[in-house]
TrEMBL record:
It comes from the Bacteria. InterPro entries: GHMP_kinase_C_dom, GHMP_kinase_C_sf, GHMP_kinase_N_dom, IspE, Ribosomal_Su5_D2-typ_SF, Ribsml_uS5_D2-typ_fold_subgr. Residues 68-145 form the GHMP kinase N-terminal domain. Pfam families: GHMP_kinases_C (PF08544), GHMP_kinases_N (PF00288). It comes from Pseudomonas petrae. This is 4-diphosphocytidyl-2-C-methyl-D-erythritol kinase. Belongs to the GHMP kinase family. IspE subfamily. Catalyzes the phosphorylation of the position 2 hydroxy group of 4-diphosphocytidyl-2C-methyl-D-erythritol. One of its GO terms (molecular function) is 4-(cytidine 5'-diphospho)-2-C-methyl-D-erythritol kinase activity.
């Protein structure tokens, strides 16, 4: 008998601003950043296995099976919960890797929430976010599913509701290693923390930008091209750059002009992640 599959989205995120305010003793950086989701992302399908095995059935180039964040998330949840069940997982990879739009982290969060549902573990969001943080600094916001102002290393989250414009996201054909940017000696690490809430307008800078554009001229090139039409920003440690538009039609118009030379996509900003909207609909 064929097993029904549970299919769930793993949306991208944007960092609408990113300030680096310090560095902890363990080398991780203290940040202040605004996360918003996109209605655009990967898709994962899950089917129960009763032999306890965790198997990702889709190969992704350059990521060995056991290092994939999906497999690591599933195994960590299985171990921590003592669940005897296993799972087959299929991945439709849409998000560019090393793009700063959180693909790996979002895949991990979708795996945690999907398996919590499939294995009927009954874990609450705090517990899932705590386990997620061990997999990556960006995982907790995807577990919680609400646009947020983040502090700490990205895990202290205050929900926010910024406008939800349409975005044009350009994808320079380079994969940026987050660890490499954070270890660059030239990185600004002493931006004074913003103490006022909500974050005052005008704080849209990304402190990683100078280091990223110095190392990856393709990113600077994309920022310059998009900057002719709207304020162009870098998300996370790149490589993706984005700009906001009041309508899909306007984003599409600029996209048509720029994607002759650059890869990109148009997507709507979302303060509630499409993963959470889908899970809500299932319950
Ligand atoms: C830059 C952001 O994308 C902003 O949303 C995130 O802070 C990065 O989150 P992530 O990709 O989940 O990062 P992780 O997988 O936890 O860390 C990758 C590497 O980035 C560096 N790292 C990451 C996050 C952080 N707050 N400080 C850091 O110094 C560390 O060297 C770490 O080894
Ligand atoms: N399921 C996965 N999807 C993508 N990358 C993965 C996955 N599992 C492990 N990785 C590894 O993680 C690296 C970073 O990938 P990811 O797509 O999350 O980058 P990113 O968008 O820059 O992340 P972030 O914005 O969180 O810094 C990849 O280069 C790859 O080696």
């Amino acid at each position: 008998m064929s097993q029904a599959r549970l299919t769930l989205p793993a949306p991208a995120k944007l960092n609408l601003m990113l300030h680096i305010t310090g560095r902890r003793a363990d080398g991780y950086h203290e940040l202040q950043t605004l996360f918003q989701f996109l209605d655009y992302g990967d898709e994962l399908s899950f089917a129960l296995r009763d032999d306890g095995e965790v198997r990702l059935q889709t190969e992704i180039a350059d990521v060995p099976h056991d290092s994939n964040l999906i497999v690591r998330a599933a195994r960590a949840l299985k171990e921590q919960s003592g669940c005897p069940l296993g799972v087959d997982i299929w991945l439709k990879k849409v998000l560019p890797m090393g793009g700063g739009i959180g693909g790996g982290s979002s895949d991990a969060a979708t795996t945690l929430l999907g398996l919590n549902h499939l294995w009927q573990l009954g874990w609450d969001e705090d517990r899932l976010a705590g386990l997620g943080l061990k997999l990556g600094a960006d995982v907790p916001v995807f577990v919680r599913g609400h646009a947020a102002f983040a502090e700490g290393i990205g895990e202290i989250l205050t929900p926010v509701t910024p406008e939800e414009p349409w975005y044009l996201v350009l994808v320079p054909q380079v994969s940026v290693s987050t660890a490499e940017i954070f270890s660059d000696p030239l990185l600004t690490r002493d931006t004074p923390p913003i103490k006022v809430r909500p974050v005052p307008k005008g704080n849209s800078r990304n402190d990683c930008l100078p280091v990223v554009t110095r190392r990856y001229p393709e990113v600077g090139n994309a920022l310059n091209l998009l900057g002719k039409f709207t304020e162009a920003k870098l998300t996370g440690t790149g490589s993706c750059v984005f700009g906001a538009f009041p309508s899909k039609a306007e984003a599409d118009k600029v996209s048509a002009l720029l994607t002759e030379t650059l890869t990109g996509f148009v997507a709507k900003g979302a303060n509630i992640s499409m993963l959470h909207r889908k899970l809500q609909a299932l319950l």
